[in-house]
Design goal:
Blueprint lengths: L1 E2 L5 E2 L23 H13 L3 E4 L4 H6 L11 E2 L6 H14 L6 E7 L1 H5 L2 H10 L4 E6 L39 H6 L5 E6 L3 H12 L5 E6 L3 H4 L6 H10 L6 E4 L2 E4 L8 H5 L10 H34 L1
Helix pairs in contact: 1-7, 3-5
Length: 316
């Protein structure tokens, strides 16, 4: 048995993962692409009996541009805003022809999830559709030229949050998608990072073996949009978690569990490792640090409160 970074147990060992790639090499992702890594790892767990949907996003372009395709499982793409609806329809369609055992998975970016696809996602969670939705979060609309999304952090440069005399990057803080989805009470929710693969694998395995709506938000650093060297993807992901900018947690049966306690290293170290934040002034960094500290306090309080509620319920 292997322990993950958060102390949980994997029923599978890394060496037991299949050698076969269901998302193959030879795709056209940028060097160091966190999204491609997130998908490749996920498909190792999900296996061949899986049907995949992807909306307009980087993954659609580098993994499924006609006449080439990197997928070795049934694959569908439709429109930008429709991931929740399409995976719902795929599952019901497969069930109608006696293939209810097929795992239906949607992979969508943060723009197609946090913004334009939020309505479709909300409906699918509320209905309790028996599907898995994975949001690979590279914190901007990268495929169309690095425009800001609701998931882009405060202060970040994008082509629609330029740096100049009047403005200096995005003026709003990152949208809290996990809390929005938790409000729908899904069967399972988890936040993950490709930089902590054991934690990610455990959560993928748990999502695969559950029924109902399962949602995973995966941090997928983007060298192109975040402006860091391509060989630094995993290092940047670790800095993101250890600074508290990204909390690794899961939600199950109404209880929030934090799967890794960060070291809370200065957020400035994480920011200055990326070109998209290089312009930030000390007062702006301090403002983001305060937000990170507050976010960690809220996440910790939520975990403690839900755990206490579970214990009280058991005692009653």
């Amino acid at each position: 048995m292997d322990k993950n970074e958060g102390g949980g147990i994997l029923s599978l060992k890394i060496k037991d993962l299949p050698d076969e790639e269901l998302f193959t090499c030879g795709h056209t992702a940028c060097a160091g692409c966190g999204g491609a890594t997130a998908v490749r790892i996920a498909m190792k767990v999900f296996g061949k009996n899986t049907a995949v949907y992807a909306p307009a996003c980087c993954l659609l372009v580098f993994g499924g541009t006609y006449p080439w395709i990197a997928w070795k499982v049934p694959y569908l793409h439709v429109a930008f805003e429709n991931t929740g609806a399409c995976i719902s329809g795929m599952k019901h369609g497969l069930k109608s022809i006696g293939k209810d055992d097929v795992l239906v998975v949607g992979f969508a970016g943060d723009g197609g999830t946090a913004d334009i696809g939020l309505q479709s996602l909300s409906g699918a969670v509320e209905r309790g559709e028996d599907v898995i939705y994975i949001m690979y979060d590279n914190e901007a609309y990268m495929n169309t030229g690095i425009q800001r999304s609701g998931s882009t952090p405060f202060g970040a440069w994008t082509t629609t949050t330029p740096v100049g005399k009047v403005k200096a990057g995005k003026e709003q803080f990152k949208k809290d998608i996990p809390s929005i989805i938790m409000a729908h009470d899904p069967a399972y929710l988890a936040t993950c990072s490709i930089s902590y693969p054991m934690d990610y694998l455990r959560k993928l395995e748990k999502a695969k073996n559950k029924k109902g709506f399962r949602f995973l938000q995966v941090s997928a650093p983007c060298p192109t949009g975040w402006k860091f060297p391509t060989e630094k993807t995993i290092e940047i992901g670790k800095m993101m978690v250890e600074s508290g900018m990204w909390t690794l947690l899961e939600y199950e049966d109404g209880v929030v569990n934090i799967t890794k306690t960060p070291k809370m290293t200065p957020v400035k170290d994480y920011l200055m490792a990326q070109g998209r934040f290089k312009h930030m002034k000390e007062e702006e960094i301090a403002r983001l640090q305060a937000w990170v500290n507050r976010k960690w306090e809220l996440d910790s309080a939520k975990a403690a409160a839900t755990q206490k509620g579970k214990e009280q319920k058991q005692e009653a």
